[in-house]
Design goal:
By secondary structure, this protein is of the alpha+beta class. The chain is built from eleven helices and twelve strands. It has helices at 2-44, 49-53, 56-68, 98-102, 144-194, 208-258, 264-295, 308-325, 344-360, 407-413, 419-429, and strands at 71-77, 82-85, 109-115, 118-129, 132-142, 303-307, 329-333, 339-343, 367-374, 378-385, 433-439, 443-451. The strands form three sheets. It has a five-stranded antiparallel beta sheet with strand order 2-1-5-4-3. A hairpin with a 3-residue loop joins strand 9 (367-374) and strand 10 (378-385). Helix 5 runs parallel beside helix 6 (208-258), helix 6 (208-258) runs antiparallel to helix 7 and helix 9 runs antiparallel to helix 11 (419-429). The chain is rod-shaped, with a radius of gyration of 53 Å. The mean pLDDT is 88. Bound molecules: adenosine-5'-triphosphate and magnesium ion (MG).
């Protein structure tokens, strides 16, 4: 609005100045054109100025001309004596006038004055006869007519400008209202959301841009809400998983404290149980820490040239005691060495987690097949087992933290549901991909594909 008002003011000023200049110029030019005709009339029959003007017909001619152009006309000789004045008051007097003074140089001179607060133009036209300066015709013309026209023009402009300002102000307010009210409502909703009210509805009214903004906010809020839900879920899972062994420890130790006549054997048995629960707590915390570390954004892999075959072989060796407990056969099918730049420890942890699952969720006398193959750019590891299998509806969730398919059964087997989320993070960090196929009662197949990098 300020800009509109400023630019209108400038236009206003500029147009008034131009109008003033143009009108004065037009009037002056008109006077000069007429005066030149008068001059011709006078010099055509020139003898000398006095005789020339001693003629009523000529005086009347000048008077007519003066009323025609609405100006006072004086004829001044070389000595600045007024020989004729249409107002008669200056006749026979010596006058002092700048323009008349200057017109001795035989050029027309124009000046502008303010006399009694009224603007006038003073135009002196030299009378030249036979190449000699004889005197001047001085035309004094009022400019008040022009200024009164300009005043009317200004008045009209003011009315027009006021209408424009009113329209600008009104439309300005409407627009501001239209833009700011949806923005205010978005701000209000965002404030509420900051305090955790994620189901707060955002008003969708407003222009297209506002709608785009609102939608972006909605997406953001949904994401926030998901993250917040995940966080709550995670905290509750962690607390729950930590509480279970702690409750056991508490119960076992209380039993020992309360019963004064515990025999040494029971003592030992209880302490072994407590020790087992402490181990479980430790392993949960270890898993949690490694998961948190893997999720750190700035985490860098310690890449080194690793022989994947050796890594898988080592995994089998480490886990073979566990497999023997259930009499599970592990077949590792790949002879040739396969090298790639990998984070050795993390990859090892990944394989151990998958193969230990294959043992844990396998049947007695079952088997595990591990295949290693490579293409020009990728390495593929397939780990399949003859275990209990995973139902199709559970497959999408097995990589989630703390997700366990069958809580009751899994409890007997042990574990908290972090193994596969760790696997997922590690594969993601290596820019690889992991897929699961499974059939209930028949077995599960994990397929890992990671890009092969040699430098
Ligand atoms: N090879 C498999 N066969 C059948 N079910 C499996 C297999 N691997 C994983 N699962 C299912 O997926 C769930 C998640 O596995 P994950 O390794 O993340 O957790 P966990 O083995 O229960 O505990 P953790 O590995 O943290 O000790 C398991 O609880 C199990 O139900
Ligand atoms: Mg596991």
């Amino acid at each position: 609005m300020i800009l509109v008002i400023i630019s209108m003011g400038l236009m206003f000023r500029f147009s008034v100045i131009s109008l003033e200049e143009e009108s004065i110029k037009a009037k002056t030019n008109n006077i000069i054109t007429h005066a030149k005709a008068l001059l011709k009339h006078m010099t055509d029959e020139y003898t000398d100025l006095n005789t020339l003007l001693d003629n009523d017909y000529r005086k009347n001619y000048i008077k007519d001309f003066s009323s025609e152009i609405d100006a006072r006309i004086l004829v001044v000789n070389r000595e600045y004596k007024v020989l004729f004045d249409t107002n008669t008051s200056y006749e026979e007097k010596i006058i002092k006038n700048n323009e008349v003074d200057q017109s001795i140089d035989r050029n027309i001179h124009i000046g502008y004055y303010k006399i009694n607060k009224k603007r006038v133009s003073s135009i002196a036209i030299p009378i030249i006869y036979k190449d000699a300066y004889k005197g001047s015709i001085l035309i004094m013309s009022s400019l008040e007519g022009i200024y009164s026209n300009i005043n009317t023009y200004i008045e009209r402009l003011i009315v027009l400008a006021s209408i424009c300002v009113i329209i600008t102000v009104v439309t300005g307010f409407i627009f501001v209202e239209k833009i700011s009210s949806p923005l205010e409502s978005i701000t209000d909703s965002v404030k509420k959301i900051v305090f955790g009210r994620y189901n707060e509805e955002i008003n969708e009214e407003g222009s297209d841009e506002i709608k785009v903004l609102t939608n972006s906010f909605k997406v953001l809020i949904e994401k926030f809400s998901q993250v917040d839900d995940q966080r709550k879920q995670f905290v509750s899972n962690v607390s729950h998983e930590l509480r279970t062994p702690l409750t056991s420890i508490k119960l076992l130790s209380e039993a020992l404290i309360e019963d004064e006549n515990v025999d040494k054997e029971t003592y030992r048995e209880f302490l072994i149980d407590i020790d087992g629960e402490v181990d479980r707590l430790n392993s949960i915390i270890d898993d949690l820490l490694s998961l948190v570390n893997l999720e750190k954004k700035e985490l860098e892999l310690k890449l080194e040239k690793v022989n994947v075959r050796d890594l898988l072989f080592k995994t089998c060796v480490i886990l073979s005691p566990l497999a023997e407990q259930k009499n599970i056969d592990i077949h590792f099918i790949k002879e040739a060495k396969t090298y790639s730049m990998l984070d050795k420890n993390k990859m090892m942890q990944c394989f151990i987690n998958i193969v230990s699952n294959s043992i844990k969720y396998n049947k007695e006398n079952g088997f595990i097949n591990i295949y290693l193959s490579e293409t020009k750019d990728t390495i593929k590891v397939v780990i399949e087992d003859s275990g209990i299998g995973i139902e199709e509806k559970d497959i999408p969730f097995i990589f989630d933290r703390f997700y366990r398919v069958d809580k009751a059964r899994s409890k007997k087997i042990g574990g908290v549901g972090l193994g596969l989320s760790i696997v997922h993070q590690i594969i993601k960090l290596h820019q690889g991909d992991i897929k699961v196929e499974s059939k209930i009662g028949e077995g599960t197949k994990f397929t890992i594909v990671i890009p092969k990098r040699l430098i």
